[in-house]
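Lecture 7 notes: from sequence to structure.

We start with a single chain of 122 residues. Read the sequence below before looking at the structure.
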Amino acid sequence: MWIQLLLIAAIVTLGIVVMRKTGADSHLALRRIFMMLFVLAAILSVLFPQWLTWVATLIGVGRGTDLLLYALVVIFLVFVYTQYRRNTVLQRQLTLLARKIALVEAQQVESTEQQNDNSAGR
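Now the structure, written as tokens:
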């Protein structure tokens, strides 16, 4: 009984932490809905472990633990893919930012040299 309460509290807490809005990025409603469904399914799996076995048998997997493993593998692969895409976008943005900074610094150096040339020519 205590382990179930502890697991449910951990699931709810992590679900809230993951779903909270951050200033850096906007969360899509679809992502929040999937997270809420995941939290609900996790709570039901803790409270009624036979439910997971029933769903697994219905799908044709056999055991609930196997279904859970397969679902976690799929979720992990989706996570890796989204992190890869996010990292690629950030690398592109970083490259563009570095180029813009280099151009601005080059223009500043050029304008400083022109001012020095103008004052030396007077």
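The chain is about 85% helix and 0% strand. Keep this in mind for problem set 3.
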